[in-house]
Amino acid sequence: MAARKIVIGATMLLEGAAAQAQSIDLLQIYQLALLHDAQYAAAKAHQRVEQEHWVQGRAGLLPQVSIDAQTHWMETDYQFPTGNAQYNRQNRSYGIQLIQPIFRLQNWVQFQQGGLQRTQAKIHLESAEQALLLRVAQAYFEVLNATDVHESLRNLRTADAEQLASSKKNFELGNVSIVDVHEAQASFDKSMAQFIKTKSELDLARYALVRITGQHPGELRGLRENVTLYSPQPAELDAWIKAAKRYNLNVQAQELLLLIADNEVRIRKAEHLPTIDLVISQNMQQYPNANTERTDSSSIGLRLSMPLYSGGRIGSATRQAVVLQEQTEFELEDARRAAAQAVREAWSGVMDGMARVKALEAAKTSARSAVASNQIGYKVGIRVGIDVLEAQSKFSDVVQQLSRTRYDTLLAQLRLKAAVGTLSKVDIAEVNALMSN
Questions:
Q1: What is the pTM of this model?
Q2: In the chain, which residues have pLDDT < 50?
């Protein structure tokens, strides 16, 4: 018997160790998301697309080389007093031409556009990285919260089952009325229904995480007991708002869009200006006429082109670019206001959340004491069954609210960092340090 107990104990230890080895933390989930998240992969592909704008803009400043070749057959009939004659020949020509832009202002501005668009692509990728960080954290916290709620309702169901059994026993002894039994049964049935629902919600939360990681991550590490949450630094809301209006990634992207819109106006206006190109060509013709076997020609020179009238297209395009520039200015102002609003919402979520966590921690202690007091009072006859059931239900509600508030507060801290454009893997690592080992 002793040997059997030792074997069972060792098996339980091994199972516990295996479960611990299979658990995964927030930082590991983020590493998986970097490799498998489809949205982030699409953002990286989009960045490569946008980087080609710089190459395309540079092409307008470099030489353009072209080659052409032609061949055709000619048949000529000659009429003479003494008779007719026919002459057939094949004419071939080859040419190569190089055009080097000397003055094309719109091409130079287009090259600058490519640099701005490449920078904008980089900002978009940074924004996608921050969005991935937030999505990973939110999905991770949703699983943890669903797990906490599921466990809380499991405990409530167990407590209600025990109270139901106690009520039935006391009813058989004549100590309580049938009302106590019915109330205990109703409470147990309700907690059972809630428990079943939370199982489905937990599964859905896990599937949401699978969408990001591309695989089932296994058990997740939760927050440590009585974990301490710290206030954001700096501790002044105005400092965060000021930083958001300047460094928020959406604001930075919109500022680049304004510069791009300014350049679009310059490009359209430059279409009114003359252009100067250096043109170099080399040509060869075989049998250009009946008396010549081959001709070679070379040329080099400058070509001036001046647009005079294009049906009003250039003027219309210029006016359109100016209006788009004005539109972008308004959008930039809206982006700054949105960044400030995001900071205020995140700040409120952090500060209010921390205060609620403290209040709910105190409420949890009080609710636990109330459960114990009502259970003792029920045993000695100064409390009825409904009092115990209500105390147990209130305790379960407080536990669920505390769990939700903790995760919401942590997520608000990350959103605050994202609002000022500084959210990074370091912040995820700091949150990960709050997880149990």
A1: 0.82
A2: 1-21
